[in-house]
Structure formats: C-alpha cells, structure tokens
C-alpha cells in the first residue's frame, strides 16, 4: 500500500467540514477489520483509510497546524500502513476496570512477542517496535504490529479460501480467534 502523502491531509478547518461523513465511513470500514481475541484483547487490521483517519484526528485533537508537526504525524502513522505482502494491525488491551487493567499489563509482559496470524495452519509471527519508554516489567495497552506473509498465505487469502486466525500464545493469555468472512474480504483487498 502506498504511504499517505502530504497533499492528502486536510487542514483542520477543511477536515471539520467533512469529518462527520469521513468518520462514519471509516467506522463502517473498520467494523469488519476489528477482531475480538478472547475477553481482553482486540485487533484492528489497518489500511490507508484507517491511517489517514488517525492522522486527521490527531491533527484535530492536538490542534497541530505547523508544517513540521503535520509531517511528523504523517511519518509516524505511515508506519502503520502495510507493505507488500504484509498485514498491519493494532492490538489493544481493553479492560475498563483500571486495577484489573494495570494488573493485566504486568501479567502480559512480552505480549507483543506472542502474536501471529495463522493461515491454513501455518503461523506468520507478528513483529513490532518495543516502546522504550515502558518499564520492562509490563506491556502497553496498544501495540502496532506487522506480519510478513509467505507467498502461499497471501495467495490463499486473496483467493478467499484460507482459514485464518489471530493467535496469541502468551503463557498468561493463550487464544486463537478465527477471522470471519467479512474480515477475510478486507485482508484480501489489502493484499491485492
């Protein structure tokens, strides 16, 4: 997928004029891309539209208007766009209760190293950058991960014949979440 270009990013005023329509479209686009993984984790498979939306929302929320600030956000979020033969996902630890969430973030240390996408029984390990600002004895609530798929897995997904699951193999949280047909359709689009 092609990275987001500067000329695609609207100024705050221009974005406000289309925000409601754009936001509603992205919510619908993300619905089949969102996968529940057990009781406490959710993943969203990212694409250009979801990344552009995140950039626009960050500029709006943080009131970023300087050219250097805008370029920084574009560069930062472009890391989420999958490359050739890749899937990109954001993994969320979603626990409303603060005390339980804090304990789970300690229990799930190393979570980002235990994620894979399984295609027809063959696992492709996810990888991501470890946040250096996080203590070594805990994980973070949000992880940005990419998965390089072998050619056979890509072909099976594109043909819409694959059995695909998101797998977490953490000693404290082991789960396999099969992806539904609508999610597989979106992944086939991403790989095309």
From TrEMBL:
- Cross-referenced InterPro entries, in alphabetical order? DUF3501
Query: Which species is this UniProt entry from?
Result: Sorangium cellulosum (Polyangium cellulosum)
Q: What name goes with this protein?
A: DUF3501 domain-containing protein
- Cite the Pfam families for this sequence: DUF3501
The protein's superkingdom reads Bacteria
């Amino acid at each position: 997928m092609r990275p987001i270009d500067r000329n695609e990013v609207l100024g705050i005023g221009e974005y406000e004029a289309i925000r409601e329509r754009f936001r509603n479209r992205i919510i619908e686009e993300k619905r089949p891309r969102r996968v529940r993984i057990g009781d406490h984790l959710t993943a969203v498979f990212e694409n250009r539209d979801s990344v552009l939306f995140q950039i626009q929302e960050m500029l709006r929320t943080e009131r970023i208007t300087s050219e250097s600030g805008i370029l920084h956000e574009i560069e930062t979020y472009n890391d989420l766009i999958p490359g050739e033969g890749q899937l990109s996902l954001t993994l969320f630890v979603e626990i409303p209760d603060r005390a339980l969430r804090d304990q789970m973030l300690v229990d799930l240390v190393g979570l980002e190293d235990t994620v894979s996408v399984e295609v027809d029984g063959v696992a492709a390990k996810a990888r991501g950058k470890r946040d250096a600002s996080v203590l070594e004895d805990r994980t973070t609530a949000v992880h940005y991960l990419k998965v390089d798929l072998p050619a056979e897995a890509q072909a099976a997904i594109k043909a819409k014949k694959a059995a695909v699951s998101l797998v977490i193999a953490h000693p404290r949280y082991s789960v396999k979440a099969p992806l539904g047909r609508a999610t597989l359709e979106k992944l086939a689009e991403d790989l095309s």
